[in-house]
Amino acid sequence: MGEGRPGVLIAGAGPSGLTAGLELCRRGFSPRIVDSESGPAPMEESRALGVNARTLTLLSPSGVTDRILGVAQHITHFRVRSGSALLFELDTGRAAGAYRAIQAMPQGLMERLLLAALREYDVEPEWNTRVEAVAGDPTEPVVSIRHADGATESVRPDFLIGADGAHSVVRKSLGFGFPGEALETCFYLADYRYEHPVDARVADIEVFNPGILGHLPVTPDTLRYISTLSDYESRIVHPDKVVEEVWRSEFRVHFRHVESMSRGNVFLAGDAAHIHSPAGARGMNLGIEDACWLAYLLSEGRQQEYSSLRMPAVRQVMKVTYRLTAFITMKNPLLIGLRNRIVPMLLRIPPIGTRLLRGVAGYDTPPPPWIAGAE
């Protein structure tokens, strides 16, 4: 798995796994990456969409940030409305640092940009290659791998990174707990492509009594709608003629995280370690943050600090996304009325608006010490 450096096996080639691989390559490692899928996320399935300022900072040393900014949709404002009333509006350019608080780019494109950067180090994920189990002492893990042709392999990496998603085989094999809860509210997603380009600068949310319907840009001619209302389609006011519905999905929100993100020489990152609401667009970004910190700590020989350094950040993001989800899904008419009157007044107070924008930007977690001047 590389000469002169310990061997690293990464299970999962989503954004977290690919970022871990890229950051390790930058630091002289030659990681091996395996994934059970046949390739990166399909381009038509936008999945994770928001790329925040923290992620842009973290990916700047690898050159991926410049590539992201060349293709992403630059969100300039967040607007939250109740009917014709504007509850509040945030200018994403008010975030401190070099970047706007958030950009929009489909997960499939993010993965392809990371893959292109990895290929510059002659690293390519092994697709259709599944981690079936992890055994042995976590300080010396033994990983069972099955290839596309059915052949099996036993691997003994120095370090194992489980970036294999919410149903992580690595996490389950080693008995990491994954406590939490599922909310009753169901979220609905749908991406619509229009005949002509539409305004891709604004992320807009309308709150109902109860429920929400919002939209975000995916590409210049495609918008993603997200709602907690089963009849959301009848409530959409399309900005142009619909050419096609590109993708749709629905899911219940879970809030879960491990109590420790490492055991011995086995480490968890991204959805394998924590899952939460899409409110605030923190999921993919938090996983990329995990991966960057882990690569840095491995290169410094400080990998045993990983969990203690990352868990406070995970708990912070879980707390924020839980509050945002409660804000947009409340059903009590009295509370809804108070929300619609009080929140606009609060956000006119500069420190409160700034704090909300810092969360959107991802600046509510510790800055990376290996990047000079990072927010």
TrEMBL record:
Keywords: FAD, Flavoprotein, Monooxygenase, Oxidoreductase
Record flagged with keyword Magnesium: no
Start and end residues of each FAD-binding domain: 8-203, 235-300
Gene Ontology molecular function: any one: oxidoreductase activity, acting on paired donors, with incorporation or reduction of molecular oxygen, NAD(P)H as one donor, and incorporation of one atom of oxygen
InterPro entries associated with the record: FAD-bd, FAD/NAD-bd_sf, RIFMO-like
Cofactor(s) needed for function: FAD
Gene3D superfamilies listed in its UniProt record: 3.30.70.2450, FAD/NAD(P)-binding domain
PANTHER family for this protein: BINDING MONOOXYGENASE, PUTATIVE (JCVI)-RELATED, TRK SYSTEM POTASSIUM UPTAKE PROTEIN
The protein, known as: FAD-dependent monooxygenase
Gene source species: Ferirhizobium litorale
Taxon lineage: Bacteria, Pseudomonadati, Pseudomonadota, Alphaproteobacteria, Hyphomicrobiales
